[in-house]
C-alpha cells in the first residue's frame, strides 16, 4: 500500500469532516505528522525483526514529548506525569521507548537544534529511564519535589484559578454563562444530539460514584483537541454547582477507539467490556494519582472516557525553552523517570512483567544502542514521509477520504 492509502485506512471510521482538519494540522511539521500517525509507526515497527526483547508492561502506546503534562489529581495536588492513554496496551516496553526516542529526534528537528544535541538527549532519556527502572521504585513529580523548569512550571499552573479556564472556554449569552462558540475548537451540536448528551451526563452525575455532587449540566459543545485523536467524538460540558452560586466545572467526554497497537502486539490482552475501560485502567495504574473525575461511560453504543478539564492542565512548551539546553535536559530527564515509574507501577498486573524483570532490564545496557539507532533512522524516514504527505494534501489526494 502507498503511504496515502495507509494513512486513509488508519483513519477509517472517524468523523470525516474532522479528519480533514486533522490532515491540515499534520502539515505543520514532521513532528506533528508523527503525532498524527501512531498506527503507521507501529506498522513499520512490526517489520523490525531485530528489535531487542524487553519485558511486558502497560504502556501508554503513544509516548512522545507532547504527551506529558500537568493536571490536578483526586487528592487536590498538581502533578507532572504521562497524560494520554488512548492507545494504552499490554506490550513490550521497547515499543514505548522507541516511539519516545523518535519523538525526541523529531522535536529537536522542529526546534532547529542540531542532531548531536538530539542524540545526547536520547541517551539522557534512556540512561535515566534505566536507572529508575533498576532501582525498582516509582517516583512522582509535584511542586514540592520538582526541580528546575518543571518546578517553576508546576508552581505557576498550581496557582491558576478556575476563572482562567472559564474565561477561555465560556461566554455570556442571553444573561447565561455558556460554552463559547467563538473558539475555533468548539462546534455547535445538533439540537437532538445536544438533548441526548445533556440527559446522559445528568444520569452520570446522579449515578456514578466518581461524578461531582450537586452539579447540573448547563451546556455542551463538540470539542476539537490534540492531533492523533482528531476525528473521534469528543464533547465538552459546562456544569454549574446547585449549592454554590457562580461555581462551575468543565468536563471532557472523549470517545475511545481500539488501540492502534492492537494488530501489531502479539500478546494476549485482557477482555474489556469497552475500550474506555482499558484506557481508564491503564491511566489509573500508570499515574501516581489519577486525574480528577476520571471514569468511563457508554453513550449511544460508543465508549467514552470522562474527566474534569482544569486550569492546572498544561504542557511544557518546548519552543519557549529551545535555547535553554539545561532546562530541556531537566525536562527529558524527568520524562524518563516518569516513564520508568509508570512501568514499575503496572508491574505484575494483568499479564505485565513483575518488578524483578523490569529491574533486570534496567540494569542491562545491551539493548539501548539498538533502540536509539532505530529511532534516529526512523525519524529520517518520518521526515521523508512528511514531505510526501504534504505534497499529497496539497494535490487533493486526501480531500475525499
Automatic annotation (TrEMBL):
It comes from the Bacteria. It holds the Pfam family DUF2252. InterPro entries: DUF2252. This is DUF2252 domain-containing protein. It comes from Pedobacter cryoconitis.
